[in-house]
Amino acid sequence: FGTLCLGEELIDEVILSNLNMQPISGNLNLSGPDASSFTIMQPAPAFNLDDCESVSIRIRFLPSTTGVKNAALNIDFISGSDITVNLTGSAFASTAYPSDTLLVINPAPNGMKKTVGVIWKADGPNEMIVQADLIEGSTNFSFDSGLSFPIRQNG
């Protein structure tokens, strides 16, 4: 699943195909030390596949704590042939934040340019801003921390 900020979610999928010449059925479940960080979104846990049919198993990664999370997707077939897919993701909590809560940049008529600065602070060491994006449909920016320039603790 990769790495995300705590509070965000990632969705991935596993394609299960029945290449037998007969229908198969089984159950899906999650296990492992961090199974609660993952959710099977679809299909329902009990499944049936006709011959040459496929299904997309959508899994959500939404951890509630930071760190590396490990679990397993278990595909248990009624016939007894089971498949295990290892799931891994990582979450971190950013401690970087602007010391000012509002940054206003006025329009620049007649080619005039206004430069404004914001002081950033971090509660922990080694924080960096890696990207600043304009939020679509608004005048707000979102910042991912982790343009790589360091943020000093206490500003």
In summary, what is this structure?
With 155 residues, the chain is mainly beta.
Features:
mainly beta
Count of alpha and pi helical runs: 0
What is the strand arrangement across the widest sheet?
1-8-7-3-5
Major β-sheet, in short?
5 strands, mixed
Radius of gyration, CA atoms, in whole angstroms: 23 Å
Counting DSSP E segments of at least 2 residues, the number of strands comes to: 13
N-end to C-end Cα span: 33 Å
The assembly state of the depicted protein chains is single chain
Along the chain, the helix and strand elements come as: EEEEEEEEEEEEE
Share of helical residues: under 10%
Q: Which blocks of ≥5 consecutive residues have pLDDT under 50?
A: none
* Gross geometry: elongated
* Helix and strand composition category: mainly beta
Strand content: over 45%
Mean pLDDT: 78
Explain what you see.
The protein is mainly beta and about 160 residues long. About 0% of the residues lie in helices and about 50% in strands. The chain is built from no helices and 13 strands. The protein has strands at about 1-5, 10-15, 25-30, 40, 45-50, 55-60, 65-75, 80-90, 95-100, 120, 130-135, 140-145, 150. The strands form four sheets. The protein has a five-stranded mixed β-sheet with strand order 1-8-7-3-5, with no helix packed on it. Strand 11 and strand 12 (about 140-145) form a beta hairpin. It is elongated, with a radius of gyration of 23 Å. The mean pLDDT is about 80.
